[in-house]
Amino acid sequence: MANARQFTGWHVLWIGVGGIGTVVAVNMYFVFAALSSHSGVDVGDAYTLGLAYNSQLEERARQASQGWSAELSSQPGENGALQISIIISDESGAPLTGLSVSGELRRVVESRSDQVVMLQETLPGQYRATVALPYAGRWQGRFTVMDDGERRLAFEGHLWVE
Fold first, then answer.
1. How far apart are the first and last CA of the chain?
2. Can you say how many angstroms the Cα of residue 19 is from the centroid of all Cα atoms in its chain?
């Protein structure tokens, strides 16, 4: 046993430094990965939106009282594009024509791929647009219907892109 190496304090020091160095390196990687991915912030100023919540409720009640409804649908188009269709009708089910319909398609998991879309009336009460979305998966659509420059209806719907 005369040739056996002893386990000294220097060994313990280097094992501790190596372990702590590994932990710091892994933490730095995770910090970089977190900062370069989705921030988790869905809206820019949640505080201000929260303050305006009662006015949003009043706007929704006004929209509900006018009796308009919108039905969102989609189907695959040419070359991987998506064809979006919205049918807008009044309380009796009659189609509403001559409206301006716009919206935003948002990817649920990140906001870098959001797209603004303008829909055109193709049939009475039916508004359509064709968009090329960069990713498959679930998309959220937020649409606004204007009549004579006044916002008459705002609604959301979900689309699935394959």
1. 70
2. 40
One-letter amino acid for residue 82 of the chain? L
**Structure confidence by residue, pLDDT tens digits, 40-77:** 666 677 788 888 888 888 888 888 888 888 999 988 87
Residue ranges and CATH numbers for the domains of the chain are 68-161 (2.60.40.1930)
Neighbours of 107 (CB within 10 A): 19
The model's pTM: 0.66
pLDDT in tens, 8-32: 999 999 999 999 999 999 999 999 9
CA-CA distance, 46 to 120, in Å (whole number)?
Answer: 32
SS3 123: strand
**Alpha-carbon distance 33 to 31, whole Å?**
5
Identify the DSSP state of 148: T
